[in-house]
Amino acid sequence: MRDAEERITRLEEMVAHQLKTIEELSDQLAEQWKVVEQTRAKLDRLTERFLSLEEQAQDATPVTRPPHY
User: What does the pLDDT read at residue 66?
Assistant: First the structure.
């Protein structure tokens, strides 16, 4: 009977430790998700800016040969 109680106690300790680990991992995952979303938003803004600059560059005066050629 004593062995069964010790086994149950060890199992309860293991479950408690695993629950704590799962909570910590969940918190880290949530934090990483925030970082991913921020990075995605920043990439979207930079992409828009790049495309805008690219359009402006296409509208610029084309490079031509100088008149002395």
Answer: 75
Task: Please tell me the distance from the alpha carbon of residue 63 to that of residue 60, in angstroms, as a whole number.
Answer: 9
- Residue 4: how many CB atoms within 10 A of its CB? 8
Measured CA distances, 19 to 16, 31, 38, 51, 61 (Å): 5, 18, 29, 47, 65
SS3 67: coil
Q: How far apart are CA 65 and CA 69, in angstroms?
A: 7
First-to-final CA distance of the chain: 103
Q: Half-sphere exposure (CA, 13 Å, Cβ side) for 21?
A: 6
pTM: 0.62
